[in-house]
């Protein structure tokens, strides 16, 4: 069994032609991509300008558009006022919802992934704290709980240790200072 290794030390005329062809094809693809993007942006701007011109020329469409925007603004304002007035009720409902999902943490893998993502993203643990996980039968901290996860929390409650990052920065800066001193 033999292994064949080909190393090109000089560029032959054929390899130059192949390189030029590849570069030309790549340039052509880039040009076509930019051209299609430009045509799409032009078509979109034409469409938007025609819609705006039709609104300006047709008073009924202009009135409909204005009333529609007014209704949307009024609904947003109403939702904001209601959220402010009923903020305690909304908070209680949200806590109830979170606690029910904590109870069903291991029952549904999609729910488990959603809770893990949420806790990692917001760097929180439960609704009020880590004690909320006592509601789950697997993490419940009672003597009658046979689970291996007893008195624990999911991995998503844990925060990452910043010490290894600081150690790496320290090591890199130490090497950098050493290189400066050598030069």
From TrEMBL:
<keyword id="KW-0812">Transmembrane</keyword>
<dbReference type="GO" id="GO:0005886">
    <property type="term" value="C:plasma membrane"/>
</dbReference>
<dbReference type="InterPro" id="IPR008952">
    <property type="entry name" value="Tetraspanin_EC2_sf"/>
</dbReference>
<feature type="transmembrane region" description="Helical">
    <location>
        <begin position="17"/>
        <end position="44"/>
    </location>
</feature>
<dbReference type="Pfam" id="PF00335">
    <property type="entry name" value="Tetraspanin"/>
</dbReference>
<protein>
    <recommendedName>
        <fullName>Tetraspanin</fullName>
    </recommendedName>
</protein>
<keyword id="KW-0472">Membrane</keyword>
<feature type="transmembrane region" description="Helical">
    <location>
        <begin position="64"/>
        <end position="86"/>
    </location>
</feature>
<dbReference type="InterPro" id="IPR018499">
    <property type="entry name" value="Tetraspanin/Peripherin"/>
</dbReference>
<keyword id="KW-1133">Transmembrane helix</keyword>
């Amino acid at each position: 069994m033999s292994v064949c290794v080909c190393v090109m030390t000089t560029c032959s005329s054929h390899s130059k032609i192949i390189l030029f062809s590849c570069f030309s094809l790549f340039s052509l693809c880039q040009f076509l991509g930019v051209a299609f993007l430009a045509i799409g942006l032009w078509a979109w701007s034409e469409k938007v300008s025609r819609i705006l011109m039709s609104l300006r020329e047709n008073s009924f469409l202009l009135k409909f558009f204005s009333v529609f925007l007014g209704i949307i603004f009024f609904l947003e304002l109403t939702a904001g006022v209601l959220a402010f007035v009923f903020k305690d009720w909304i908070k209680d409902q949200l806590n109830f919802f979170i606690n029910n999902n904590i109870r069903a943490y291991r029952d549904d893998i999609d729910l488990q992934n959603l809770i893990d993502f949420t806790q990692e993203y917001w760097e929180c643990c439960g609704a009020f704290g880590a004690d909320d996980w006592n509601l789950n039968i697997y993490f419940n901290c009672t003597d009658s709980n046979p689970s291996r996860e007893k008195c624990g929390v999911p991995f998503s409650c844990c925060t990452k240790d910043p010490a290894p990052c600081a150690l790496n920065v320290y090591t890199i800066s130490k090497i950098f200072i050493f290189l400066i001193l050598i030069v």
